[in-house]
């Protein structure tokens, strides 16, 4: 009897730990049923997916290229969650960030050395995203405006600003001349491209390809990603460095401490003399800043020009939330999680092409993953709280344990 | 065996006896229960006594099915039973009212009682039935509970009655009461004791946890004492003295009386001049309150809770807007300073609702140790936290107040209730304040720690600290304070020297008579 109880505890923990994996598997299982109904062999389809995402150097490169904005956005989402606010405005923040970065690139490109333009461009995107995050933060803190509503509106505004600029002042002069009126900017000059992996490898002296060196199989593909020309750019490394910095920020610095304190227990933070409102604005600002940075990196590392706003943000503002949750809102956890979701995006694409399944189906499967991940996350929390201590009341749990406190409209006394 | 007279007023069978044998429960780094034997009988109120972290709540949570023990068995009426969850224990007739209980807020009493029930499918339809049953139970047990009342509008004492009704509703024959009196006013305690005694007389079995020895003697038949997870012994309450119990609990002599030596008082450190304040609903909560606290002085604040004590403390701490009047700290005008400014000016505030306002449960002991001072040296260089210094500081707090914790990195939600309290007190005193506001400082802490806290307050007083001691425990207020201020309806009824006033006179003032009237009558 004793033994069975210990086993049960261990088993409980194990289940919790594996829950995200189950979630993905469950989503795939449901997806398989849908595929079957479509007359597609799900095993073949999933094989196409996995091979497409991770099987070749170009697949791998694309996966990491998509993981980059997911990771950056996810970091911002994690900061917001930790600070007890919710940022679903990352789409708009990405767009605003990429717009300003592009503008900086267009203005400074010719006159200033590339490295400096890249730096300024990244900073500009970060700043712009930060502003776009600060607005809902401020509205919430000062006027009690629900941040979910305001961020959704700001997303729309960002899209419209984007179209306005791309059809007007920022439109590619070539398009204007040709009269085609496609809303995109001119290509930024090559000097301000963030270096690709292959560029870095070349400059380090790795000039031979996998074929030259006779490295075969998956290792060869891996080598290829690092050395041969692919779309993979240094933004990915940059994002990983950021993840480490965010980890240090949240757990080693005074400001990170304050953000986490406010996120976990607003009352105690106020009693301890922290400025709760200002901290919430700060969390939103930082969250937006990372989304803006994601936009900047997309421009300088990948697209090298601004085009249709929603195609640049490409849903990363939302899938970044899932990546963050899947990574347990831990900066280092979001690294593998964003690679996984990057892989899903790329693999889904490949599967669609290989199996001739409609695009909506891919979206549906991704949606299922999201649904299952979020609901199992909820389930795990419930299981844990039930197991540890059910004496805590419902509302206390909402604020203190889950840390994703709902907006308060109650005015707080502070000067 | 089941006879007619074996039924409880609620119509359910009694629990003749319940026995826990050889219970062992381990948590990471602690042996919370070490082969504990414990039993309780029908008609009995059995006290469970022990220092903070002795394992009382743990033992009771095992009985209630919240924790699974590693070893041991539970016997109901002599037969072994298994309890895997609260549902099991409820089915066996066991109910529990938790330490720091919390009810779902924005629902009515009836909804709340119906909420956790397994058979709550047709919740809406059932509510009338539930209400009727609540009324019936409330009647039978003399519990005043209105099934339609909204929980969030109820005072703590009323909420507690709801908890009891809820347990009875679910068929509790045995009721575990984990520190039910810690949050109650003395009057509410008297009321609830009448109910507990009646319940026992009716054949319920009650397990009662409290740190207040007076209550143990007033209420219980037997006492079991836990120390460091081990059962020290079970005695008849009538056969022992307070000192005996204190000894069993702590393992050494505990001084139950306080000696307040005369000290020379210095300049006024805290001056409150005619302040008034309103609450969120714009109702006045403080009206023209004036007083001063000098260096080396403890000013006690007595009053039935809800008469302005909390707004007063918060006005001084910068948490409550002061509409009118002035607050001076060491001669400096600090009216409507922010809390942060107040803390840097030399104020420490031990809030009443410490579990909620004074700590962050998911933070570790270390992180909680620096809640106000995390940006200050030596705990940080403004940007980065200095973990060595923080660890040292936390260690100092743990040692100074004998806080029981597996490690400094343990999230404090895993500490026992009293140990969280001790950590917060230790933190506030260690800040070396010029002025201290201590609200209910010994609520929920064991007698050893109470002694220590009292001695600390007296020690700091001798060092020149000015203390505002807010407490509902009149014995505590009288023992520690040089002067006592009584608040009623947000007004000062009078400020009197503590050795010149009787408890009765204080009682009259707390009921709204001014000091002049009270003393004119005497
Ligand atoms: N969920 C938990 N996880 C880890 N340790 C725990 C947990 N619950 C309790 N403990 C530890 O078990 C010990 C006993 O705690 P318990 O809550 O039973 O004490 P208690 O006697 O009720 O004290 P108090 O009078 O302070 O309420 C403590 O050392 C505590 O730190
Ligand atoms: Mg306890």
Word description of this protein:
The complex is a heterodimer of chains A (415) and B (522). Chain A is mostly helical and 415 residues long. Chain A has 19 helices and no strands. With 522 residues, chain B is an alpha/beta fold. Chain B has three domains: 14-93 and 173-249, 3-Layer(aba) Sandwich (Rossmann fold); 104-171, no CATH class; 268-521, P-loop containing nucleotide triphosphate hydrolases (Rossmann fold, 3-Layer(aba) Sandwich). Chain B contains 18 helices and 20 strands. Chain B has a six-stranded mixed sheet with strand order 6-7-8-3-9-10, sandwiched between helices. A six-stranded mixed sheet of chain B has the order 16-17-18-13-19-20, sandwiched between helices. Chain B has a four-stranded antiparallel sheet with strand order 2-1-4-5, with helices on one face. Chains A and B meet through helix 1, helix 12, helix 13 and helix 19 of A and helix 10 of B. The complex binds adenosine-5'-triphosphate and magnesium ion.
Secondary-structure map:
The complex is a heterodimer of chains A (415) and B (522).
Chain A: H1 2-37, H2 42-54, H3 57-82, H4 90-108, H5 114-143, H6 147-167, H7 173-178, H8 197-203, H9 210-213, H10 217-227, H11 235-252, H12 254-264, H13 266-271, H14 276-303, H15 309-313, H16 316-326, H17 331-355, H18 359-388, H19 394-401
Helix pairs in contact in A: 1-18, 2-3, 2-17, 3-10, 3-11, 3-14, 3-16, 3-17, 4-5, 4-6, 4-14, 4-16, 5-6, 5-14, 11-12, 11-17, 12-14, 16-17, 16-18, 17-18
Chain B: E1 17-27, E2 30-41, E3 45-50, H1 56-63, E4 71-76, E5 79-81, H2 86-91, E6 94-97, H3 109-115, H4 123-141, H5 156-169, E7 174-178, H6 186-201, E8 205-209, H7 213-219, E9 222-227, E10 230-236, H8 242-250, E11 268-278, E12 284-294, E13 298-302, H9 309-317, E14 324-329, E15 332-333, H10 339-344, E16 347-350, H11 354-357, H12 365-369, H13 387-400, H14 417-430, E17 435-439, H15 447-462, E18 466-470, H16 474-480, E19 483-488, E20 491-497, H17 503-510, H18 515-521
Parallel strand pairs in B: 3-8, 3-9, 6-7, 7-8, 13-18, 13-19, 16-17, 17-18
Antiparallel strand pairs in B: 1-2, 1-4, 4-5, 9-10, 11-12, 11-14, 14-15, 19-20
Helix pairs in contact in B: 3-4, 3-5, 4-5
The structure holds adenosine-5'-triphosphate (ATP) and magnesium ion.
């Amino acid at each position: 009897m004793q033994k069975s109880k210990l086993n049960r505890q261990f088993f409980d923990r194990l289940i919790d730990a594996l829950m995200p994996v189950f979630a993905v598997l469950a989503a795939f299982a449901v997806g398989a049923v849908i595929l079957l109904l479509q007359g597609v062999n799900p095993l073949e389809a999933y094989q196409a997916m996995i091979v497409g995402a991770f099987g070749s150097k170009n697949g791998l490169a694309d996966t990491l290229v998509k993981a980059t904005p997911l990771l950056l956005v996810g970091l911002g989402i994690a900061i917001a969650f930790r600070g007890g606010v919710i940022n679903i405005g990352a789409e708009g923040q990405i767009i605003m960030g990429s717009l300003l970065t592009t503008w900086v690139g267009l203005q400074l490109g010719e006159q200033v050395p590339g490295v400096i333009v890249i730096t300024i461009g990244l900073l500009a995107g970060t700043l712009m995203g930060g502003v776009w995050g600060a607005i809902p933060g401020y509205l919430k803190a000062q006027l009690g405006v629900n941040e979910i509503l305001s961020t959704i509106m700001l997303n729309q505004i960002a899209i419209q600003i984007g179209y306005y600029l791309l059809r007007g002042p920022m439109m590619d002069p070539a398009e204007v001349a040709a009269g085609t009126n496609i809303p995109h900017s001119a290509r930024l000059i090559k000097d301000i491209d963030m270096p690709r992996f292959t560029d870095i490898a070349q400059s380090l002296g790795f000039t031979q390809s996998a074929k030259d060196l006779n490295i075969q199989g998956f290792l060869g593909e891996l080598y290829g990603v690092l050395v041969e020309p692919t779309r993979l750019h240094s933004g990915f490394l940059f994002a990983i460095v950021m993840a480490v910095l965010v980890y240090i920020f949240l757990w080693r610095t005074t400001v990170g401490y304050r953000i986490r304190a406010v996120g976990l227990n607003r009352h105690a933070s106020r009693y301890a003399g922290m400025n709760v409102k200002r901290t919430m604005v700060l969390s939103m600002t930082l969250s937006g800043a990372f989304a803006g940075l994601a936009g900047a990196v997309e421009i300088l590392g990948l697209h090298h020009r601004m085009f249709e706003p929603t195609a640049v943000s490409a849903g990363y503002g939302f899938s970044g939330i899932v990546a963050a949750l899947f990574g347990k809102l831990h900066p280092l956890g979001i690294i593998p999680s964003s690679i996984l979701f990057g892989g899903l995006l790329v693999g889904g694409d490949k599967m669609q092409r290989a199996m001739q399944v409609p695009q909506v189906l891919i979206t549906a499967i991704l949606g299922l993953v999201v649904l299952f991940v979020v609901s199992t996350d909820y389930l795990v929390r419930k299981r844990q709280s039930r197991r540890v201590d059910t004496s805590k009341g419902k509302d206390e749990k909402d604020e203190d344990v889950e840390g994703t406190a709902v907006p308060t409209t109650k005015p707080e006394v502070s000067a | 065996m089941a006879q007619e007279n074996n039924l409880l007023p609620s119509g359910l069978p009694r629990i003749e006896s319940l026995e826990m044998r050889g219970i062992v429960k381990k948590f990471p780094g602690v042996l919370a229960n070490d082969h504990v034997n414990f039993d309780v009988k029908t008609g009995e109120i059995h006290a469970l006594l022990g220092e903070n972290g002795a394992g009382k709540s743990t033992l009771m949570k095992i009985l209630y099915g919240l924790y699974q023990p590693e070893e041991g068995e539970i016997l109901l009426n002599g037969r072994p039973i298994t309890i895997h969850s609260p549902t099991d224990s409820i089915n066996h007739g066991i109910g529990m009212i938790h330490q720091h209980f919390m009810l779902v807020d924005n629902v009515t009493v009836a909804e709340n009682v119906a909420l956790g029930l397994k058979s709550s499918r047709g919740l809406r339809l059932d509510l009338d039935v539930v209400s009727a049953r609540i009324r019936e139970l409330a009647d039978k047990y003399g519990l005043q509970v209105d099934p339609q009342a909204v929980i969030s509008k109820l005072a703590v004492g009323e909420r507690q009655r709801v908890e009891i009704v809820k347990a009875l509703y679910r068929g509790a024959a045995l009721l575990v009461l984990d520190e039910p009196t810690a949050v109650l006013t003395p009057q509410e305690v008297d009321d609830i004791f009448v109910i507990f005694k009646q319940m026992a007389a009716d054949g319920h079995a009650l397990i009662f946890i409290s740190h207040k020895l007076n209550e143990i003697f007033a209420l219980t038949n037997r006492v079991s004492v836990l120390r460091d997870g081990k059962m020290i012994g079970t005695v008849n309450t009538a056969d022992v003295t307070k000192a005996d119990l204190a000894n069993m609990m702590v393992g050494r002599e505990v001084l139950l009386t306080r000696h307040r030596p005369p000290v020379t008082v210095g300049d006024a450190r805290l001056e409150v001049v005619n302040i008034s304040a309103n609450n969120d609903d714009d109702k006045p909560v403080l009206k023209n309150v004036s007083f001063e606290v000098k260096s080396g002085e403890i000013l006690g604040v007595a009053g039935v809770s809800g008469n302005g004590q909390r707004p007063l403390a918060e006005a001084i701490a910068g948490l409550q807007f002061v509409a009118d009047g002035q607050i001076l700290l060491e001669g400096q005008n600090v009216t409507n300073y922010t809390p942060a400014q107040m803390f840097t000016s030399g104020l420490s505030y031990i809030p009443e609702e410490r579990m909620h306002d004074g700590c962050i449960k998911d933070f570790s002991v270390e992180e909680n140790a620096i809640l106000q001072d995390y940006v200050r040296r030596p705990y940080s260089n403004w940007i980065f936290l200095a973990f060595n210094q923080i660890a040292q500081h936390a260690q100092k707090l743990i040692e100074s107040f004998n806080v029981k914790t597996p490690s400094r990195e343990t999230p404090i939600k895993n500490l026992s209730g009293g140990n969280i309290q001790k950590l917060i007190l230790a933190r506030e005193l260690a800040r070396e304040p010029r002025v201290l506001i201590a609200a209910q400082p010994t609520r929920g802490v064991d007698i050893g720690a109470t002694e220590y806290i009292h001695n600390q307050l007296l020690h700091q007083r001798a060092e020149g600290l000015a203390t505002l001691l807010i407490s509902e425990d009149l014995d505590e207020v009288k023992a520690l304070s040089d002067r006592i201020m009584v608040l009623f309806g947000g007004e000062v009824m009078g400020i009197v020297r503590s050795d010149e006033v009787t408890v009765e006179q204080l009682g009259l003032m707390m009921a709204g008579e001014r000091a002049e009237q009270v003393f004119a009558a005497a």
